[in-house]
Design a protein that fits this description.
Layout: H1 13-39, H2 41-64, H3 75-78, H4 84-93, H5 97-106, H6 111-116, H7 118-123, H8 129-162, E1 168-169, E2 175-176, H9 178-207, H10 213-231, H11 261-286
Antiparallel strand pairs: 1-2
Helix pairs in contact: 1-8, 2-4, 2-5, 2-8, 4-8, 5-9, 5-10, 8-9, 8-11, 9-10, 9-11
Amino acid sequence: MSSTEAVPYEVPPAADAERRRYRGAFRRLYQGEMRLLLHRRRNLVLMAVLAVIPIFIGVAVKVSQPHGDEGPEFPSRITGNGLFLVFTALAVSIPFFLPLVIGVIFGDAIAGEAGSGTLRYLLSVPVSRSRLLAVKALATATFTLIAVLLVAAAAIITGGFLFGLHSLVLLSGDTVGLGSALVRTVAVVLYVAIALYGLAAGGLFISTLTENAIAAMAATVCIAILFALLDAVPQLSSIHPVLLTHNWLGFGELLRSSISVSDLTRWTALHLSYAAIFLSLAWARFTTKDVTG
């Protein structure tokens, strides 16, 4: 090899082993956190409640059989296409049920472990606080997506069984094929999950402020209630566009023939901004928190 040839940089074996060990530790922490979230009995009950919501709505619509333009926009369309049960179930779940589930589960994320003493054990392994918080933030995002997917999956199964799945008549009056309709449904699920992640991150932040899990759960739910109340006051219309809950139902934009990408981008950026702010506050608090539990 001549002196002018480039010599490829090789990662020292020790550094490479340390990097793999770090990735492996992060993955194991994340897997353990997800197992805890998905196997805790309380969480399973809450997920069962979410799954029952579209079933209840579907059966109620099947029994009552609304026709034409009777009733609200989404429910009146369910009888013609079971896919609309997804949008109806999400619209019903977003104001109360999904925030309640998020508040109960993520308000307990750190406060519950601090109160029971397991958080102190985790930090003595040792695990850096930043890494542990990153694991919990990722698990929070994953479980939020799972919760929304659960509602959508139960709605698709129920709607398909009771009413069938057909080409979708959009809110703008145009019709798209079933394949395109399913793509839009996936986009709706992702939008709702991102929108709710701002609240989930808020729950994670509040969970770092106390060792009382019940207080953290209640405070997280109160965040959603407070923003919803502010959004309902006409005199505060100037601040409505920047409220956390204002565009939670903005997924209706995805059910139009001409989608406003700028609006969806702006709303999504707002939700992610709330998540980033809450996670930053959680990191600032958690990395200096005196864990006594």
